[in-house]
Amino acid sequence: MNLNRYKFNGKQKVELTAFDTKYTDCFTTSDDVKSIVEENVKEISELQSKLYAEGKTGLLLIFQAMDAAGKDSAIKHVMSGINPQGVNVHSFKQPSSEELAHDYLWRAVKVLPERGKIAIFNRSYYEDVLVVKVHKLYEKLNVPPRCKTADTIKKRYEQIKNFEDYLWENGIITIKFFLHLSKETQRKRFLRRIDNKDKNWKFSDADIRERKFWDDYQEAYQSAIGATATEKNPWYIIPADKKWFSRAIISNILLQTMREIDPQYPVITPEQEAVLEESRRKLTKQE
Ligand code: AMP
Ligand code: MG
Fold first, then answer.
1. Which ligand is nearest to the CA of 190?
2. Strand pairing partners for 90?
3. Which terminus of the chain is less hemmed in, N or C, by CB atoms within 10 Å?
């Protein structure tokens, strides 16, 4: 799989309409990628143990998408090989009044990964340049007029880019996934959520209201991705009409990222080795 096809580092122009959301590379069914994904899961799990033991680098995985693009199932899948002790998942909903009383990064900062850990964000501070842009929600904020001007969103792109740079320089790498779904596939998945009783809970009539703003959202995603993709903290645009394929690419990207981090178990010093030997001696003698 050529992962560069999906990667945006700020040098390319982002054009979402030029993307084939149904793309599945040379694969036709989920069975074709099953063994790849299984191998990936094993290696990711080993690398995560090292990441945790080393404690030098934190990894922040951000998932953004239109409703029904498969964020939840992609996250579930990413988690499958990962030791729960080293990972936290956070979902970002409509901000509470406490959250609205703070700057928009505040709620994300509180749950950033410590070094050695992985944090998965199901939605994120990117909502503050997506839904907030589409509905001009910043105009409703209780802030001085200078904080809600026509270029508020543009300023936020810079703030986010700088924020992620800052994290990178402090040992935290941010990888951003946009699960790119077609409007038609969203329609079908919504219908399935209505038809299937076990999926009813996932559907809300608000989803239909937001669907009306489809083009505005696409525009918002396109400019946000273009403005915040960097070499250090890239965006990946993942074709999402076939869930099995998006999950396979995501696992490949995660594996590649972790290989690049290349975490190592801490090296034992001669002094530590001596202590281990002493402990072995005591335990062997059943002390
Ligand atoms: P879901 O992820 O489907 O449970 O929905 C969460 C909802 O919260 C989505 O409609 C998001 O757009 C919305 N949301 C998340 N963050 C924000 C935010 N900062 N401002 C407004 N709405 C948000
Ligand atoms: Mg939803």
1. 2
2. 121
3. C
pLDDT at 287 over 80: no
**181 has pLDDT over 90:** yes
Report the DSSP pairing between strands 118-122 and 87-91: parallel
Cα angle value 11/13/16 (rounded, 5°): 135
Residue 175, pLDDT above cutoff 80: yes
Q: DSSP for 104-141, please give it.
A: TTHHHHTTPPPTT-EEEEES-GGGGGTHHHHTTGGGGS
- Residue at 162: amino acid letter: N
Q: How confident is the model at residue 286 (pLDDT cuts 50, 70, 90)?
A: confident
Q: Which ligand is nearest to the CA of 137?
A: 1
Q: Are 52 and 117 in contact (CB under 8 A)?
A: yes
* CB 190, CB 208: distance < 8 Å: yes
Cα of 133 vs centre of ligand 1, distance in Å, is: 12
Q: Are strands 7-8 and 235-239 parallel, antiparallel or unpaired?
A: antiparallel
Q: Is this prediction's pTM over 0.90?
A: yes
